[in-house]
Specification:
Helix content is 37%, strand content 15%. It has 248 residues and is of the alpha+beta class.
């Protein structure tokens, strides 16, 4: 699949900071063409908690890998969740030799922009992470797209690290579909046994480092605000940063 104008603008901006204004204008104009509006994020709502979740575990940390469109916003959301010690943007679903931004942007590598979330299961469960994922991090009814971004690399997907994670994810999707919490069916795929590859350094902590970048303002900051509004008990003001985790 060809890279869309929106995608080209995103990539161009990250590589050419001096042309921020031009790229931002193009993105906002293109987003308007897709009928996207800032108020779309206001439709986020807290969904039922998973009926099936993790049982007791002695593990001090576990990892959840989730894909829900552009990884900037998904990473930004989970960096503000209590119990998360790291959230790394990256690629999952394809091979190691195609796990780079330029290649996956063509949309035919099998990769999806993903986030690997390291968390303490004593503070937050895998099921609760999925509840946040489906409530505020993305729209799981959009097939191979998310907002202005199109392609299989923007698909909604869960990459379980264990059979238990796969079981919980499958049960939760079935629970939400049965409850008709959305007007359309959830299209999130469950893709086990797929490796995760961290993205380039300039993608890490992108939302935190670029809060005034129009793509972030338009598409992603409302997700963080909805996390704060809908999950106040799980929200923390100071995000955990990849750059900080790398030095600890």
């Amino acid at each position: 699949m060809k890279t869309t104008p929106i995608r080209k603008a995103r990539r161009f901006l990250t590589q050419t900071p001096l042309l921020v204004a031009v790229a931002a204008t193009l993105m906002l104009a293109a987003a308007g063409g897709f009928g996207i509006s800032p108020s779309a994020a206001d439709e986020s709502r807290i969904l039922p908690a998973p009926a099936v979740d993790e049982t007791s575990t002695t593990a001090k940390t576990e990892t959840a890998v989730l894909a829900g469109g552009c990884f900037w916003g998904v990473q930004g959301v989970f960096q503000h969740v209590k119990g998360v010690s790291n959230a790394v943007s990256g690629y999952a679903g394809g091979d190691a030799d195609t796990a780079n931004y330029d290649t996956i942007s063509e949309g035919d590598t099998g990769h999806a922009e993903s986030v690997a979330i390291t968390y303490d299961p004593a503070q937050i469960s895998y099921g609760r992470l999925l509840q946040i994922f489906f409530s505020v991090a993305h729209d799981p009814t959009q097939l191979n797209r998310q907002g202005p971004d199109h392609g299989t690399n923007y698909r909604s997907a869960i990459f379980p690290a264990s059979p238990d994670q796969a079981r919980i994810a499958k049960a939760y999707i079935a629970q939400l579909n049965q409850a008709h919490v959305y007007d359309a069916a959830i299209v999130t795929t469950i893709e086990p046994d797929r490796a995760f590859y961290p993205a380039e350094a300039y993608h890490q902590d992108f939302l935190v480092r670029n809060p005034s970048y129009p793509y972030i303002v338009f598409n992603d900051l409302p997700k963080v605000e909805n996390l704060k509004r809908l999950f106040p008990d799980l929200y923390r003001d100071n995000p955990v940063l990849v750059s900080a985790a790398a030095t600890n």
